[in-house]
Amino acid sequence: MVRQPSINAQHRTPLSTERIIEAALQIVDGQGLGRLTMRRLGDALEVEAMAIYHHLPRGKEQLLDGLVAHVAAAPADEAATGRWQDVLRAWAGGYRGRLLAHAGVLPLVVTRRNPAALTATAASLREVLRRGGIAEDPASVAAHTLLGYVIGHAALEVRGTNEDGADRAVDWDTRFAAGLDVVLGGVR
């Protein structure tokens, strides 16, 4: 069946990689990662699924990499002024919020072999630490530890686990802040 252009097709934003990633993110956020198909994505964009391959020649693999890059690429604001601890606290809170807002992509962030997004983020964290007077090797370790902490905490939070065996509801904001204090307090 050939799709007939809709009356609104003339007023629609042209297809682009960014538009494709945004539409895929809406599907994942609303229906879950398992419901993301090229056909469903094409329907959401009001295009034939094959049109997506013009922008993403590797197909779904490239789409999944794009989702990870879109959600997980969150460099620290290296232009921010203030103590490095405050800059990293602000980054960690924002990054956690981004991961929780797009929890359907979180399994891809954890398991996908897309080092570019996470490597760039870790490099920006390392730079904030270096500007704060932390030597290169400890800054590198701290950057990766901080990145792992935020991703891991978001994963536990999404799962909704009381991993410490607590019989009470977990206050995730308080727990996150306390863990962040431990991570940042260990940086020397």
Automatic annotation (TrEMBL):
<dbReference type="InterPro" id="IPR050109">
    <property type="entry name" value="HTH-type_TetR-like_transc_reg"/>
</dbReference>
<dbReference type="GO" id="GO:0045892">
    <property type="term" value="P:negative regulation of DNA-templated transcription"/>
</dbReference>
<keyword id="KW-0804">Transcription</keyword>
<protein>
    <submittedName>
        <fullName>TetR/AcrR family transcriptional regulator</fullName>
    </submittedName>
</protein>
<dbReference type="InterPro" id="IPR001647">
    <property type="entry name" value="HTH_TetR"/>
</dbReference>
<dbReference type="Pfam" id="PF02909">
    <property type="entry name" value="TetR_C_1"/>
</dbReference>
<dbReference type="InterPro" id="IPR004111">
    <property type="entry name" value="Repressor_TetR_C"/>
</dbReference>
<keyword id="KW-0238">DNA-binding</keyword>
<feature type="domain" description="HTH tetR-type">
    <location>
        <begin position="20"/>
        <end position="65"/>
    </location>
</feature>
<keyword id="KW-0805">Transcription regulation</keyword>
<dbReference type="GO" id="GO:0000976">
    <property type="term" value="F:transcription cis-regulatory region binding"/>
</dbReference>
<dbReference type="InterPro" id="IPR009057">
    <property type="entry name" value="Homeodomain-like_sf"/>
</dbReference>
<feature type="domain" description="Tetracycline repressor TetR C-terminal">
    <location>
        <begin position="80"/>
        <end position="168"/>
    </location>
</feature>
<dbReference type="GO" id="GO:0003700">
    <property type="term" value="F:DNA-binding transcription factor activity"/>
</dbReference>
<dbReference type="Pfam" id="PF00440">
    <property type="entry name" value="TetR_N"/>
</dbReference>
<dbReference type="InterPro" id="IPR036271">
    <property type="entry name" value="Tet_transcr_reg_TetR-rel_C_sf"/>
</dbReference>
